[in-house]
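Just wondering, does anyone understand what follows?

——
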Amino acid sequence: MGFELIALFVTFTTPATLMLLARAAIYRDRSEAAADVPTDIGDGADTRPGAKRVP
């Protein structure tokens, strides 16, 4: 019973943990103004020359 509970816990928490770590890394890179980090998807402000806006 203990092993199944641990496996279930890991199965459900791993995706959420990965998502939080990825968001934290993107926030860190954006706050440091890293050149290779894209702008926020939701703001629609792609300022690159020749960039096409996706509807």
